[in-house]
Design a protein that fits this description.
Elements (H helix, E strand, L loop, with lengths): L5 E4 L7 H9 L5 E4 L3 H9 L10 E4 L2 E4 L1 H11 L7 H23 L5 H30 L11 H16 L8 H11 L2 H7 L11 H11 L2
Parallel strand pairs: 1-2
Antiparallel strand pairs: 1-3, 3-4
Helix pairs in contact: 1-3, 1-6, 4-5, 4-6, 6-7
Keywords: Transferase
Catalytic activity: RX + glutathione = an S-substituted glutathione + a halide anion + H(+)
Protein name: Glutathione S-transferase
Length: about 220
């Protein structure tokens, strides 16, 4: 029997959080080895664990996988979250990439210079309500099904609900005009595996505070 996947990253959301969500949603227990110092990161590099010298890195099924999308796609394929055929996979990937575009803006917000943060926040809100949330609401309305693709759970649903939670932390009112997205959030959040992940004390990470942000800057020298 294969051991649990091991996730190598700092103790925060970042690019590892979608991986945590996906593993949690399919009920896969995982371990985490947190990078706490620049020396921890350097050791992974020196030991040859990081193909491109960067994290996230996930040890799974005898591999040391890097590159976030590669890791997500492997997990999705392994646990049947990637559509039933090529056309469905294309849709799952297209929706996931749309989620990733907005997620990236939110991800980088804490690193934004203070004098630019207000403008970035305005841009995020505008793109949420005028571009991305309307697009996903339209998809759900077009087929009237419970999930984005093929009327069954895919990685696109999980990524989208993670994004909704992140957006609501910025401004809960941004979801107000999207009833189908609200329903999707409720549906996914009530899955027993996801409910466990979201509970206090679960493996979902909190937003970066100033102390954690300072640690990230030191680890990655940014």
């Amino acid at each position: 029997m294969a051991g649990k996947p091991t996730l190598h990253y700092f103790k925060g959301r970042g690019r590892m959080e979608p991986i945590r969500w996906l593993l949690a949603a399919v009920g896969v227990e995982f371990e985490e080895k947190f990078i706490e110092t620049p020396e921890d990161l350097e050791k992974l590099r020196n030991d040859g664990y990081l193909l491109f010298q960067q994290v996230p890195m996930v040890e799974i099924d005898g591999m040391k996988l890097v590159q976030t999308r590669t890791i997500l796609n492997y997990i999705a394929a392994k646990y049947n979250l990637h559509g039933k055929d090529m056309k469905e996979r294309a849709l799952v990937d297209m929706y996931s990439e749309g989620v990733a575009d907005l997620y990236e803006m939110i991800l980088l917000l804490p690193l934004c210079p203070p004098d630019q943060k207000g403008a970035k926040m305005t841009q995020i809100k505008e793109k949420t309500t005028n571009r991305y949330f309307p697009a996903f609401e339209k998809v759900l309305k077009s087929h009237g099904q419970d999930y984005l693709v093929g009327n069954r759970l895919s990685k696109a649903d999980i990524h989208l609900v993670e994004l909704i939670y992140a957006v609501e932390e910025i401004d809960p009112s941004l979801l107000a005009n999207f009833p189908l997205l609200k329903a999707l959030k409720t549906r996914i959040s009530n899955l027993p595996t996801v409910k466990k992940f979201l509970q206090p004390g679960g493996q979902r990470k909190a937003p970066l505070d100033e102390k954690a942000l300072e640690q990230v800057r030191k680890i990655f020298k940014i």
